[in-house]
Write a structure and sequence with these properties.
The complex is a heterotetramer, with two copies of chain A (80 residues), one copy of chain B (580 residues) and one copy of chain C (229 residues). By secondary structure, chain A is of the alpha+beta class. Chain A has two helices and three strands, in the order E-H-E-H-E. Chain A has a single domain (2-79), classed as Mth169, Chain: A (2-Layer Sandwich), CATH 3.30.1280. With 580 residues, chain B is α+β, with helices and mostly antiparallel strands. Chain B has helices at residues 12-17, 22-32, 38-47, 50-53, 58-61, 98-103, 105-121, 144-162, 222-227, 246-260, 275-287, 307-312, 328-337, 368-373, 402-411, 419-422, 461-466, 468-485, 505-525, and strands spanning 71-73, 80-83, 88-96, 126-136, 166-173, 182-192, 207-212, 265-270, 290-294, 318-323, 341-349, 353-358, 361-367, 433-435, 442-445, 452-458, 489-498, 529-535, 539-540, 543-544, 548-557. In chain B, strand 15 and strand 16 form a beta hairpin. In chain B, helix 18 packs parallel to helix 19. Classes of the chains: A alpha+beta (80), B alpha+beta (580), C alpha/beta (229). Chain C binds chain D through residues 57-58, 61-62, 65, 93-94, 96, 99-101, 103-108, 146, 148, 150, 182, and chain D through 12-14, 16-17, 19-20, 64-66, 68, 70-71. Strand 2 of chain A pairs antiparallel with strand 2 (33-46) of chain D. The structure holds adenosine-5'-diphosphate.
Chain lengths: 80, 580, 229, 80
């Protein structure tokens, strides 16, 4: 089963990357760009084919490794 | 004071939640002569916290030797300043970021490095070397691997980006740190001895200026967060760790040094822990003046921020300055060139009060001298550490194989090479690193000169645990030896006192013993203490860490080309043992 | 040889670069700020190391889009010599003055150490003071030095003698074990088609003083002085 | 108009981060994980409210700055 995991910074956590991108877009004359936030997307393929089990397996991976849950949230999308 | 911001009712419970004891509450009420507002309560709580007030340690810290002909400025400012000849000064300090690094190793360690560098460049010095003293739990503890790699990456991530070489440190492992690692970071900066910047505000009517990054809701204390009403609707708990932005700090460094090259700054203070609160209070207190802040003018990262949050935020990469009148535009130009925020957010007054306004309306008003002078100081009960039983060397069996014993020693985590760590640090940037990590002390050359600074950080906590006085002495002596081994003359030290819960007499006894031992060694070696930091309550499940008074020292060597290292140079040369 | 050093917000090895250029050429390079749209008339433009714009998004990405880099690209076309070291190399690939890209080191860690490098092409204006096949030691200090290009590009680089340096061991052996960051074919530095633009990850400017532990980097700067004065 | 930009490595470009994650997941006893690839997700808010225009504006941002098209692909999702 293929899946995508989206990892984003929690609300209120400073995002230096997003801030710098916003600034750089402004300097390149792209006006009116706001609230730029940078996150990660991780694509993976796991052996498990049962949806519920796959989801809970990936959840465990997020909690243990993929996301830094002190400052990040994650969302899982199963693709099949 | 009819502002909504302070509509929150101040109850004894809320005061207690802010970590203020009943005794301290009495003092607070006497100072204010009324109930404090919510914002004011927040300010008292941070100013009187262990972190800001040093309430358990101050009494003993005052006994450390801090003077010498080489000392330009001892403890009490952002960092210590010593004369290194040729009209130049070294400015240095060590600081801990233990708890944040345990919660989020990368960001905790990174912001620790960022904080100590600000302490140094706020005084007018360009940082030229970083060190880091690390203590982790047992190597086979399940969390250790994650903590080591995160902390090391964080230290490198910040220091490498800043372009300051990380040239030394120490890394040891012991199970007592399993639930409470130590991350102590040290920075050495270089300044002209006649151009050092202090925090003392002066000049009634002078502008108070905010520079750096915007203020967000970073690091506002967890307990007080829960009781506050500003929380948005999201159910996620707002994280209390700060994220570092080394790029912003690099810009802040360059902008500050550019402005400092002129003469428009009267005083400057970095916003570290307790950000705007401690910086403004310290500036006013030192200058015996008042400060009025217009909080609605503070550059904000998030919407709907309150005075309470603005005063308590620990957002990184910010500074507060008092400028000479009429010099705002000159300063603004520099900060805008470096693409940083710049805002006039207040003025120096003659009231000796910290007055906080929002849209012209007063939202807080605290007399500064009693806030500072009446901050609690405890002479906590302590008991001397009982003498450890001496091990009779004869009772230890000789190893059956000397090679085996040697291999075991070299292979032990504490003795093993730390190359894996320091190769992740840029220890060469600036092009002045003469002795890299891996030796006794690092040596960095002063740009344009033949002379250099030798530096080392040291402590053997096992010794301190066995005998705090002797262990304290030995930490100082080891640092002194490491510096002399390069050929440099030791000048002065900074320190980071990492201990358990000071409310326990045996822990307080370790602290007192270490201070006594350090003092004795410092006096004997003419090696005064010019700055330092204290981190208490390092415990897990009621078990304190090993007492860890880390010593960071510097020395000067006239010609770095003559500095010595430990490499064996040629075959067949004799090895000589000196000393007792 | 007259030279210029380009500065971006976050550049941090500019003083190292200035010292090396001054030592080799006897004159101080001019400093050029990232917002400039015109460059002084010089023989050599150096883009030094550091973390331009924090290396946020991708290392060198934002600096690559700055006004001064458009001017640098014009100069490159006009045949002026350009050297980018570390972040400078990353910036040169981001502006497409050099092919390929520099990705995160294969072991994902920042690495700072003295590295052995094999001079692959000693017939360039940057390397003429070395012998082909000579092993030199310069420090490396980077997080994103893992050179990537598709195999077609790599073959072309090789075929045209545009691989300037490779990671090797002390004896000049180029092998997977001597590849300290995962770069394709151990590549540490490459040239553009015309041979007037060099990008490299290692820092020759940190190997110019006996007290640095070696002076192998001097050859690179003296090559340039000889070719460009 | 809010939008998300997904930036992924092109096929054939090796992905050190993805590989390291795959390896680390294995070490944590998550078996059967394959083809891990790490990408970026950039969220932004632009002033333009017309869908077609917004899309072409963001495309320009990707070409100019957000993606390095030598090694990366991008995909744009408008959220409204
Ligand atoms: N965290 C670290 N950062 C930088 N250098 C380190 C670190 N840990 C150890 N080192 C370096 O490794 C070498 C050996 O350290 P240590 O064993 O503490 O030295 P010694 O006990 O001989 O004084 C020293 O040169 C030290 O600077």
């Amino acid at each position: 089963m293929k899946a995508k995991v989206y990892i984003t910074l929690k609300n209120g956590v400073l995002d230096p990357q997003g801030k710098a991108i916003e600034h750089a877009l402004g300097a390149l004359d792209f006006g009116g760009v706001n609230e730029v936030r940078q996150g990660k997307m991780i694509e993976l393929d796991i052996a498990e084919s049962d949806e519920a089990k796959a989801k809970s397996q990936i959840e465990a991976m997020c909690e243990k490794l993929l996301a830094n849950t002190v400052i990040e949230n994650y969302a899982i999308e199963l693709i099949g | 004071m009819s502002n909504d911001f302070n509509a929150i009712e101040i109850t004894p419970e809320l005061i207690a939640e802010h970590g203020i004891t009943e005794e301290e509450r009495e003092v607070l009420m006497n100072i204010m002569g009324r109930m404090p507002t919510y914002t004011e309560l927040g300010i008292f709580s941070v100013m009187w916290s262990e972190h800001c007030s040093y309430k358990s340690s101050r009494f003993w810290l005052k006994t450390l030797p801090t003077e010498g002909p080489q000392v330009i400025c001892g403890p009490g400012e952002n960092a210590g300043v010593v004369d290194i000849g040729d009209g130049q000064a070294a400015i240095f300090k060590m600081e801990s970021h233990n708890h944040p690094s345990y919660i989020e190793p990368y960001q905790g360690a990174a912001t620790g490095v960022g904080g100590i560098m600000r302490d140094v460049f706020t005084m007018g010095a360009r940082p030229i070397a970083n060190l880091n003293a690390l203590r982790f739990g047992s190597p086979d503890h399940p969390k250790t691997r994650h903590l080591v790699s995160g902390v090391v990456a964080g230290i490198g991530g910040y220091g490498n980006c800043m372009g300051v070489p990380t040239v030394g440190g120490e890394t040891t492992f012991h199970p007592s740190y399993n639930g409470n690692i130590l991350v102590n970071a040290m920075t050495i900066g270089l300044a002209n001895a006649d151009k050092i910047f202090y925090s003392k505000a002066s000049g009634i009517g002078n502008p108070v200026v905010y520079v750096g990054s915007k203020t967000g809701r970073d690091g506002i204390h967890g307990a007080t967060m829960a009781s506050a009403e500003f929380d948005d609707n999201s159910d996620e708990k707002r994280p209390t760790v700060q994220v570092g932005d080394p790029f912003a700090e690099k810009l802040l460094l360059e902008a500050c040094l550019e402005l400092m090259a002129g003469d428009s700054i009267i005083s400057i203070q970095d916003m570290g822990a307790a950000g705007l609160t401690s910086s403004s209070v310290e500036m006013a207190d030192k200058g015996e003046v008042g400060i009025e802040l217009w909080l609605d003018k503070v550059p904000m990262r998030e919407e709907g921020m309150t005075p309470y949050e603005l005063m308590l935020s620990e957002s990184q990469e910010r500074m507060l300055m008092v400028l000479k009148p009429g010099r705002e535009e000159e300063a603004r130009k520099i900060f805008e060139k470096w693409e940083l925020d710049f805002a006039v957010i207040g003025t120096v007054t003659d009231t000796r009060h910290l007055v906080l306004k929002w849209d012209g309306e007063v939202v807080g008003d605290i007399p500064v001298p009693p806030l500072v002078d009446a901050s609690p100081m405890y002479e906590r009960p302590w008991e001397p550490t009982p003498k450890a039983v001496e091990i009779d060397a004869a009772s230890v069996a000789a190893p059956s194989s000397l090679t085996g014993a040697l291999k075991q020693m070299i292979g032990s985590p504490n003795m093993a090479s730390k190359r894996w760590i320091w190769e992740q640090y840029d220890h060469l940037v600036m092009g002045e690193t003469i002795q890299s990590p891996g030796g006794d002390a690092a040596v960095v050359r002063i740009p344009g000169k033949t002379k250099g600074i030798a530096t080392s950080s040291d402590c053997n906590p096992v010794y301190v645990k066995a005998d705090p006085i002797e262990g304290g002495k030995q930490a100082v002596a080891e640092c002194w030896r490491n510096i002399t081994a390069t050929g440099a003359k030791p000048l002065a030290i900074t320190n980071n006192m990492n201990f358990g819960n000071p409310e326990r007499p045996n822990i307080m006894g370790q602290f007192v013993g270490a201070i006594k031992g350090m003092s004795e060694a410092c006096i004997a070696l003419d090696f005064p203490v010019v700055s330092g930091n204290v981190s208490l309550y390092n415990e897990t499940k009621g078990e304190g860490i090993l007492p860890t008074p880390v010593i960071g020292g510097i020395g000067v060597i006239a010609d770095v080309a003559k500095s010595m290292n430990m490499a064996l140079k040629n075959a067949d040369e004799e090895l000589v043992l000196i000393g007792e | 040889m007259k030279s210029a050093v380009i500065l971006f917000p976050g550049t941090n090895r500019e003083n190292d670069a200035i010292a090396a250029l001054e030592q080799a050429s006897g004159s101080k390079p001019q400093l050029v700020w990232h917002g400039e749209t015109e460059l002084p008339k010089v023989d050599l433009i150096m883009i030094p190391g550091g973390f331009s714009y924090g290396d946020y998004l991708r290392s060198g990405a934002m600096a690559g889009k700055s006004p001064v880099m458009r001017a640098v690209a014009d100069q490159a076309k006009a045949g002026v010599s350009i050297i980018g070291v570390c972040n400078g190399f990353q910036i040169l690939t981001e502006t497409h003055l050099l092919p390929g890209a520099l990705m995160r080191n294969a072991h994902l860690k920042f690495i700072c150490k003295r590295a052995a490098l094999k001079i692959e092409n000693a017939e360039t204006r940057f390397t003429s003071k070395y012998d082909a096949g000579q092993v030199v030691k310069y420090p490396v200090a980077h997080h994103d030095g893992n050179y990537f290009a598709d195999s077609e590009t790599l073959d072309r680089l090789e075929g045209e003698g545009r691989v300037a340096l490779r990671y090797c061991d002390d004896d000049g052996v180029v092998a997977p074990e001597t590849n300290l960051n995962g770069s394709q074919r151990n590549i540490a530095g490459i040239l553009n088609e015309k041979g007037n633009v060099l990008g490299m990850m290692p820092h020759p400017e940190n190997a110019i003083d006996p007290l640095h532990g070696g002076i192998d980097g001097r050859g690179l700067f003296s090559s340039m002085v000889e070719a460009l004065s």
